[in-house]
Structure formats: C-alpha cells, structure tokens
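quick one, 44 residues, struct below
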Amino acid sequence: MSEHEHGSMDIKEQEKTFDGFVKFTTYTVIGILVFLVLLAMING
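---
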C-alpha cells in the first residue's frame, strides 16, 4: 500500500466548486436582504 503524500492531490475541481458555492451563497443572501428591505418599505 502506498503512502499518502500531503499536498499531492489535484484539488482544482474542488476549489472551483467551492468558489461557485460561495458566490451562490453570497448572491442568495444579498437577494434575500434586498427582498426584505423592499418588503419593509412596501408595508411601511
């Protein structure tokens, strides 16, 4: 059985997926905040 070498794995796809997740989460939170502000303005 071969030994694992720390840092030898290619993680480009994982980094790309994580970046997409962070962007999606950021835009979703901003969208929800804008919606809540508009809802508060409409209801006075």
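The radius of gyration is 20 Å.
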